[in-house]
Amino acid sequence: MKQLKVIEFSEFPGPRYIHLGDSSGEQFREKYLLPKIKEHGVIQVDLDGAFGYGSSFLEEAFGGLLRAGVEPEIARGIAQNLKSDDDPSLKIEVTGYIEDAINENSNEQ
Amino acid sequence: MKYWEVTNSDVKNKIRFKRWHRGKRRQVAMLAQKRRTHKSLNSNFIKVLAPSRIDLYKLKSQGHFLGFIDDIHNKAHIAYCNSKPLNLCFRNTIFVSAAAALVLLARIELLRKKYPKLKMLCSYPPKHKPAARNQRSPKTNTVDAVFNRIGLYEAMGLETRHLREDHSVKCWNVLRGTEVRSLEAGNLFKEVGGQLNISLNRLFRPLIEAMSNAVEHAYPHTPEKNWWVFTSVLPGSSNLTVLLFDAGVGIPATLEITQPPTIINKIKNLFSLELSSDSAYIKAALEVRRTRTQLGYRGKGGDDLKSIISNTPNSSLLVLSNTGRYAYNQPLSRPSNASYETLTELPRSIKGTMIEWTVPIETQKNEAA
Hints:
Chain A has 109 residues and is mainly alpha-helical. Chain A has helices at 25-40, 55-67, 72-80, 89-108, and strands spanning 3-5, 44-46.
């Protein structure tokens, strides 16, 4: 399975949106995550090595996949294959954001 | 006259005299105040006298310090209009705490932006003997060292003083910006962590969330979104303090704009909270995440601010926003115990939002090991 390491994007993930500052969740999703998903489908995202993650970054990067049109099955696959040995609670958190985004999408439809 | 008539008229005369004397004293005080104002306008500079304690933690000091800040603003305007320098007089100041120092620095920097041509002078803090039993202990000037270290004199347009390095202020660090600067914040934490031999990863998340909130919400009407970050360790203290301040409109002014009425009402019901004070607004803002979990994807930051405190014994979170003061303390024994929350009001508004996390250094060392 193709792997994407967040630390290759930034050691210090930042805010939610690009206009708020550098290393944003929106930038990570648009420039790194979505292109890889379009090319390979479900990939393994490695969260290890970064200094820390704000909740806004994680929600925009992963929950934002659904808002960007990624299929729920692919988003769930990414959550299941997430690697986070430094902080295992991040996997649960990201899974929560993805499920919330799926529910919100289905409510809108 | 009978005895009781003489005594009664004595008492009446005494009362009359006291009233007259009181009125006279009031007149004299008003005249003296007029003369002082007149004198200051006629003198070569406009002076603002700082209180002896520059502090936001103790109730007694809060009013004096916030009054000093308001005084600086008012007199800066007068000085600017009269083309006179503004003299900040710290000759009585013998104590400064982290939160107040941060607010003072931020306010001075903003003043310089507002009045770039305003000249500032300074009467430096005095050397004084610390309150120690040993009367032979040398006089110190920690206040001067702190001001110099954090760049207050530089912010006033004065030269940085070449003081002997005071070990007590080595761990005071400042960061400032107008957008979220995760790289600088992370490097600052790495540097401070290196000095103290601890890991500060767990403080990174709440700081970045608070910084994001400051940039995104605190300044709805101005293009420049200023924030300041401090880290400090007091000598002899086993605690690290990290603070963030923004001079924005405050949480009470933005909560009902950033969150929908459904969430606000849910918070009010869940926590039996009436949004009738600034401190209540702060608590509501910190509870948005818990309330919002099933209702949408925004508003995750509030729980981030508290999460490290909930999981770290003997730590605390302090949030000041306008006149609101919210304190959240985690007791030393057993993190599963109820944490202590207090909501109070400041005597004056700090005109912005200050967030402070205090964590024991030993705990961070143990977690890093």
